[in-house]
Amino acid sequence: MQLNGLIFEICAATYRVFSMKHCVQVACWGASLFAVSLLSACNRESLPTVEEKLVGRWEWQQTADADQNTLTPANTGHQVVVEFDRRGRARFYQDGALVSAAAFSLRREMSGFGRPARQVIIYRGYRSNQVYTVTGNQLSLQETSGAKLAEHTYTRLVPAGPDHLPEQKKL
Fold first, then answer.
1. What pTM was computed for the model?
2. 156 compared with 24, residue with greater pLDDT
């Protein structure tokens, strides 16, 4: 209702100077500008940031190293889940039991001229960092140091409710 009143005021003021045709054009232009700004604001707010995409529970699918060796839940006999929360805490589960937890922070590193920046997870108390990418429901974690560099692939787990979390043991 306020928008219509504003448009009417603009038309009334404009009518004195311009013809009715110009008044309609100004009103349409104003309404279009308002609609575009409203839609663009909604789109910016609805897109999650790179950091927000990391938050959640991820189930391990495979690990591949530089020598083309591949580990999977099928050939290791273990289910691995990692959970990243909004408070900067990572929890690592193996076969449903909490085996490790660490505080983490995120950093964006420039990769060099003409190359895109890398998103890096820094675990407090650990030497190794990981480069991460999230594409849809896939998470890729790449080791940044160590004797054997590896890439770990995870799939996002969709929460089933409050009892979907495995029982947590105190460290």
1. 0.64
2. 156
